[in-house]
Amino acid sequence: MKWCSKSVTASAVVLLFSVCAPVHASMQMAVDYGCLNCHGAYPRGEAPSFERLADKLVKYKGDDAALAAKVASYRAGEPMEHIEAHERISLDAATRLLRWLAEGGK
Ligand code: HEC
Fold it and tell me: pLDDT tens digits, residue range 1-46?
């Protein structure tokens, strides 16, 4: 977001701050959390690409209750299938990342 670094008039600062502050997840956040190691353009093993995940998660878009339930099961993992990157992430970060994916992951 190039325009975030532009100098802005005072009246726009508040608006821009709410847009640019890291409240929402982004591809950069997914990179920082190592998600791309498995879910990148060349997914590893069983891992679906982010594009496929976004298709899968779109049904949670705008439905915070369903998203919260999904986040909980995502962090808990399956009994026979532990994915460390999914489990060690905080509730807050997981919610942001999954919401970002539900909104298209772009
Ligand atoms: C070590 C590899 C690995 C890493 C790192 C990883 N994942 Fe995954 N992820 C997987 C695999 C494998 C699956 C598929 C599991 C399945 O289909 O049961 C998966 C599935 C998912 C799903 C779908 C879950 C579902 O129930 O449909 C989401 C959402 C997801 N990953 C998000 C993330 C996010 C966000 C990160 C970064 C914090 C991340 N993953 C990091 C391997 C990984």
Answer: 555 555 555 555 444 444 444 567 889 999 999 999 999 888 888 8
Class of domain 22-102: mainly alpha
- Please tell me the pTM assigned to this model: 0.81
* 83 Cβ below 6 A of ligand 1: yes
Domain limits of the chain? 22-102
C-alpha 40/C-alpha 22 separation (Å) is 22
Asked whether 54 lines ligand 1 (CB < 6 A), one says no
Instruction: Give the residues across from 81 on adjacent strands.
Output: 78
In DSSP notation, 75-95 reads: HH-BTTB--HHHHSS-HHHHH
Residue 78 one-letter amino acid:
E
The CB of 102 under 6 Å from ligand 1? The reply is no
- For the CA of 89, the closest atom of ligand 1 is 38
Q: For residue 65, what are its two tokens?
A: 């209750």
Q: How far is the CA of 25 from the centre of ligand 1 (A)?
A: 16
